[in-house]
User: Fold these one by one.
Assistant:
Number 1:
Amino acid sequence: MQYVEVAVSVPVGLNQTFHYRVPANLSGQVSRFSRVEVPFAGRLVQGFVLGFSDPPNLKMIKDVKRVVEKQAYLNEELFQLAQWMVQRYLCSIGDALQTIAGSPAGAARVKERVIVAIDGIDGDDKLTGLVRAPKQRRALEVALASPGLKKSELAELAEVSTPVIDALLAKGLLQEVESYKKIMPDPPPRQESLQLTPEQLTVVNQLVNAINSPKPSAWLLHGVTGSGKTEVYLRAIEHTLNLGRQAIVLVPEISLTPQMVERFRSRFGDAVALLHSALSNGEKYAEKDRIRTGQAMVVLGARSAIFAPTPKLGLIIIDEEHESSYKQDESPKYHAREVALQRAALNQGVVLLGSATPAIESYCRARPGGPYGLLTMTQRIDQRPLPRVQIVDMRQELAGGNTGIFSLALQRALAQRLARQEKSILFLNRRGFASIVVCRQCGQVMKCPHCDISLTLHHDGILRCHYCGHRTANPRVCPSCGGKAIRSFGVGTQRVEEEVRRLFPDCQVLRMDADTTSRKGSHQKLLDEFSRGGGQILIGTQMIAKGLDIPQVTLVGVISADVTLHMPDFRSAERTFQLLTQVAGRAGRGEKSGEVIIQTYDPEHFSILTARNHDFLSFYHKEMTHRKALKYPPFSHLIKILFSGLNEADVIAAAEWWQDKLTAIKHECGGQEIEILGPAPAGIPKIKDRWRWQLVIKGPDSREIRNVARIALAQAGIRFKQVAVSIDVDPVSL
């Protein structure tokens, strides 16, 4: 009888595992890292086999119920990574392994039967000797030229009937084999390497030396928008592949992936694998198999692609490294940048972080004496100028009688671009038609009944909650006082689209936000339509603010720079600067110069003024002064602990218990510089009927505050069964 140690994918102690017996019918099917289904706490859960064990000293031991995957996409390196994640993010080993391995998928879902010719029959003389019938010979020639077609596809391409294919199969000249379905079309024609600028050449040479070194290293590439960072990435990857090693490239948004895919596949062909959340589990399974076997040497994808099962990893590139989308929202709340650094350390590899607006913490680490090397590119390709930026004070517009969405300057600029047949982008980081609906008689704001957040009015007259999806009709009378003075305030992307169509009725307008890109492939379709002439003005949220390289765009309008500026978060100024600089960088990437118009009610704010001048260093030094005064990162580390439950009193009780416990533990551990902030209601106090409170641990030493949280977590145990506790180490938002 065999016994196994299993890490279950449910919240338990950090390194807690459980023992199960392998029944006779599963003998030989279970191995290290098998994904299995086991009984746990009265239900069946999935877990991962960590190894075989001696018979445990237990009165009763349960059986493994079934093998979900004989070999999940895990290996020894990824197991070491999971152990590191347990210590870094205070999660269970089962949760860490589940995050790394992803969802299971049967190979049958992504396999199909295709036709290939047998080996050794290429050449006219051999073909003539093997088949005399013209149709059979034509089908055999097509099979040799295009292996991997389905039977019907081969018959259609060769212009023969399927019985002709069957005859060749019967003769043994063709064979039908199983193959993974292709999730991408054939790669575009190979694009040769571009001529490097002197700055690019200097950066590439430094990276080549780093890749050749047997020591792991991390580099921050600070390059202005349009400076050619992607070509640097491609050259670094080429060198990595020449050494027989693999590369992972992360992009922050699925919307960026299609453009990157085309560029990368034109250079590396079918050696590129794609991993992101829009793929089905079966498609991910097929891509991971190509990565594991070395058929795919370049992995391109969003955040979770950092866990790709690369056996020969040598290089990790994180494009737009400052983006908050690299932070996972659910436990374990990992940051792809930190995971990349750990994987590089385990593989003696190189991490390259690229951005025109690096995260404050990243740039701090790249200063002299820091752990990152700093690479800079200050010039755009072909010495193209950065776009001119104009700030419009919307207070003056209002004083002059303009109560509309667009300033007069932006209206004129849009009209000029339409007359010259140039393209424009309008950016607003808020979807919907209006941000709030209010009764002007009693002041009642229409809120979601399940979340403590205002409902957003959409163009179809429906009020929607962007957190839980609740929908209701826009009321004609106030549900609180019965008044009829219901009005909408604020602006969303749908309202911007309506106003553009009113001002320019003959203009072709496209909108790109979460409402228009929910279907698979919709990002690519909209971008293709805009870049190939199907739209003159593109309206969108932050998914259009970075990475898009459309040479015809000469104007970018920021409808309201204040949406992110006054959020109650210590990173609000940083996010504002990054968004403004990134979206401004979409203009003037071709032969014609670009212009940016930023509309704001706070034109004197330093984040807006430095963005106007494309001046990251001035912003960095100003922001660091504020952070140091308030002891915020990078001058401290934070842990946010969120408590949620259906009963607010239970949630408050749990938060207060934790506050008392953390205070006592920090004194016992001598952490005099550690602060416990809160508890207090979360930024959104209720989501999906669950009340939310939070507290924050703040201190100069990351290990110290994690140790305090770890001790409290162990002592809490299952004390508060009705309250979920979520730990976020180094949160990107409070």
Number 2:
Amino acid sequence: MNKLKSSLFVLLVLTFVSAKADEGMWLLQLMKEQHSIEMMKKQGLLLEADDVYNPNGISLKDAVGIFGGGCTGEIISSEGLILTNHHCGYGAIQQHSSVEHDYLTNGFWAKNRKEEIPTPGLAFTFIERIENITDIVNAQVKEGKISEIYSYTTPYLTKLADELLAKSDLKGKPGISAQALPFYAGNKFYLLYKKKYSDVRMVAAPPSSIGKFGGETDNWMWPRHTGDFSMFRIYADANGEPAEYSEKNVPLKCKKHLSISLKGIEEGDYAMIMGFPGSTSRYLTASEVKERMEALNAPRIRVREARQNVLRAEMAKSDKVRIQYASKFASSSNYWKNSIGMNKAIVDNKVIETKLAQEKRFQEFAKTKGNQDYMNVVKEIDDAVAKTSAINYQWTCFREVFIGGIEFGTPYLLCDKLKDALKNKDKAKADSVITDMKKVFAEIHNKDYDHEVDRKVAKALLPLYAEMVPAEQRPSIYSVIEKEFKGDYNKFIDACYDNSIFANQTNFDNFVKSPSIKALDKDLMTKFVRSKYEMNSKLSDERNTVTEPLTLLHKTYVRGLGEMKEPTPSYPDANFTIRLTYGNVKSYNPKDGVHYNYFTTMKGIMEKEDPNNSEFVVPAKLKELYNNKDFGRYALKNGEMPVCFLSTNDITGGNSGSPVINGKGQLIGAAFDGNWESLSGDINFDNDLQRCICVDIRYILFIVDKLGNSKHLIDEMTIVE
């Protein structure tokens, strides 16, 4: 235990001798302990530590929160106005869109509070408090109450969080929950108290020709000209507390909001980002990087490309389908292209070689320390990876096809319950189950699902899966296809999509009128779903068994790397908790003879315009504003209109929508992407190439003001000229 405490102290000590300030997703709660505020000031920060994060008062932290389930948003007015990315709000925009009200194509601008649209299922979550619970977890392990490996598990951490919340002064307060998580691969544990507001309304969204300008082609690319933003508002009860939607709710009077700077940016200016990076793997060994490429990225690329080809073709044929599948396609495409770029960047940036060099240094360090655990750990990780690679490949193929690909299914557990009720001639029970089935039928055939589109997806993916996975490793439904349909996937899929009880309203109504065990037993789609979940359970158990040893090995390796790097600080991998990254506005050179400037302007939008390509259509109103140079107070000194800029901030997925803040604590932009050349950055940060792509706050305000004619939104913001 003393050795562990000593190691943790070393891990957290900070004197930036060799570290580069740009790298690092730093924990707010360790800012003072790590003295990082001094380095931030050297970079250009003009604030004090308590202005950034103050556990006992109000700080910048209180203006930033989780938008939805996977993005960051910031508060930009005292009345709960949220700024986030367009792609973060895309699901909500799509949810409210129809052929008659196509907000995806035309944009949406609420002209007053009454026009702001309630968005069921959308929430905004603040971090109320952060507590170090490492000693509590370690004590329970030492006392034998739990095993060390169990301390990482969700059931244990959830139970512990609930117990600690029950003892807290926050117990019972509206919207409050607690989450316990491991950091530094389980060398530390923190408890986060969260406050969730569930009445969030859509306020403003530019048309997709602005918010998604460049589409798939420009995704992860620079130069960029995308106005990737949307706005929402938090509503609360009369006391400012979280409440479900009600017409009586009022805009939240926020305790902190970000002021906005119109001064603009210059190369070298200080820039920091506060947000919720989702996941990084900076402490992988070389063997694990190779596994990532071959067992995760490669199959993901292949399956998603096949599915997206179907969706792309069907969306082009119908506005209805385009709107239905817009969010699904965007979500799939984003990390399809990310996986392609990551595999390329791993090779181009020699990431595996870098990891091998680090392992060599670590081995030498371990020998110097005389620490046998450190000397053995890399080989032990490599041995474990030799067992995990095959199962992780199977897992990725399976999840991409059967969980993330094909949507149609039937509630096989309800079917089993109904069979039991019918066998026992329990009419009351049967009627109750059928009522539940009606709800499931409605959930299947929701407004964002098209049965014929999904049929085509299934016809593309089922045979592809058979090509990728050996027969003995496939779900049992493949035996049914082989025996009963002679391996004809199209015939099997048509039988499922035509004849299943849940395939259409007519089939379902006929079954409900006269439910029978025979009909349930014959239902091919129910057999399909049953085999899917049997395989999911099997793979999950196998995967947990072979990957479990890696958990404690990584704890040792990360602790050792922290010691080896001293006195340079270490930061934990991202896990969708609030972090701070700081650096500077900066251009870069992606390859020999090529230089990328640190900002773009509307001139580039006009240069990219292609009326025949939906990704590069420019709205007529935007062209009119450009031609008239009607940029108002948002233009550069030379009269051009800025659009996007680059910074050296260390971000990843989950940071989307995060505020980019200058040295005075003022908002200068919103982060929305990384650059193609550094898509290996989740594994290995490259100080020369890694860039964060941000939409300039001046372009956001210009669009809101001039194109959206929503000056009332501008007026409620705190703008510094």
Number 3:
Amino acid sequence: MTEKQQQLEAFRVNDKGQALTTNQGLKMADDEHSLKAGDRGPTLLEDFHFREKMTHFDHERIPERVVHARGSAAHGVFETYECASDITKAKFLNGKNTTTPVFVRFSTVAGSRGSADTVRDVRGFATKFYTEEGNYDLVGNNIPVFFIQDAIKFPDFIHSVKPEPNNEIPQAQSAHDTFWDFVANNQESAHTVMWHLSDRAIPRSYRMMEGFGVNTYRFINAEGKAHFVKFHWKPLLGVKSLVWDEAQKIAGKDPDFHRRDLWDAIERGDYPEYELGVQLISEEDEFKFSFDILDATKIWPEEEVPVRILGKMTLNKNVDNFFAETEQVAFHVGHVVPGIDFSNDPLLQGRLFSYTDTQLIRLGGPNFHELPINRPVCPFHNNQRDGYGRHTINVGQVSYHKNSLANNTPRPVPEEEGGYAHYEEKIEGRKVRARSESFKDHFSQARLFWLSMTDIEKKHIIDAFSFEVGKVKNKHIRKQVVDMFAHVCNTLATKVAENVGIEPPAKVEVPNIQQTSPSVSQELNPVETVKTLKVAVLVSEKSPQNLQELLSIFTKENIVVELIGSKQGILQGHEINQTFSTTASVLYDGVYLTTSYDDTHQQKLADHFIQEAFDHFKTVGYTENITSIQQFTRKDGVVKSPEAFVQALAQHRHWER
């Protein structure tokens, strides 16, 4: 248990076995009836218990986040691999094997709290480090670039992707007119749209997606040497995604798919792990690249700026109460510690305002830092007082600085003693509403991304474009979009135009680059492992009597197995977890068939289960002498032994078929 988890124990209350009381501790004799004037008479105003209970119920919901409303979270610990004092004086990164408690919230951007997990969307990846110097929040996404360059455009972008205001349709989707109208008329979005329409936007699991700080920050070491820095989270299970048909079906079969996957993995002890890496550019090299390093719509290609791995984060504990922790946690890019500072990235500069403003409305005032999940593990002292939700009971008569009554305390701390001091950067220029000329190239990195994709990844992007733009009702917007993306690749734009019934774009000039960045491709960077993948084993009374032997082969490899049958019960000492009516093929990474079914209807359900897994390019395994599987044999990823199944499952998908 980390220090933060121990701190939270003081706030945890188990009501089991306790007497019923009011919030003031008064024991109540009756909780079934309101106080009335006669058993059929009016309720009395003096019924304080009813009023307290109902008032609390009426106020149980706080405003959901405007963005990132739907989230899931967990506690964990971050441990350094090395001492990074050469690049930053942040204490939690200074020293080998230094541990820091963390809290991580994953989320979708566009949808409401009630939307589905598997929609096509950017995913949030926000981490709160509870360091001895104060809380540090690394607030990022699973895509390393963003749709806009300047934060003043953020309300416009979000308004466009949210449900359209006239009819509140569609929920949690970008496949509609206003989003694509925004894209076509704000072409800085081109690069991020390419990522958004790639497999990155439909991750298999929160445990199998990368995280990125997106913006450019600064590291400063104890000698005052500064580097520009970008942050990366790299999952040890590798980066894996769903296919689009599968993602849509899961949204109906289990809208909590990612939330459940994260929760179940931690409960099993299959703790999600991510390595923290940084890309570093020295100040003297700021202008040596073909792109502006402060532009949030640009990556720093890892082939040019390698990622240095600093340590590993392990998520090892689920929340005890979703509202108190996941819903009330308040992140802020301005929560930093000495050794971490900001750049002039205009998207980042605007975020430094927005987060505090958001918490004030969501969490009821300026004391959101006093909620248990947000409290630092180190002491905090200042002259702030009062306000909604104040927990601290401040003693003494002094609440100002400077003072003599309290010996001028709490006092500022010099930088050399650990006080935070902003990096002294020379600033010159006239006050203007403008954007740097170096931010005006919107298509080079969009093309870089496209050229870096494998053939199957390119096909998925074309299919995603065709789906999204095909949902746009206004054909003028469709035409604008295909004309815009002709600047990325004419073949891409022409194929999409054909699919959505629009005249192909004219030949236009595309950026003259042949450079690729293999690091952005999922398919070129596979992590072939079966660890924690979920497999459905189809069984019946006709299954071979060696079921235990089969399951042992799978569980030895840390594969999560569920038995699926026509009815629930016990078979060969094992519980049949699901039936064809309570689960679906899309919820599993692979399917293993041990039986055929005498009942024609049940056999059809089993055939559909196998067919769907096959159509989604998953591994299918089977035991001998099952005639219903014959149509799939001699296909890639369809194998006839548990050992071969494990080997094939590690590939995750079999695109060859």
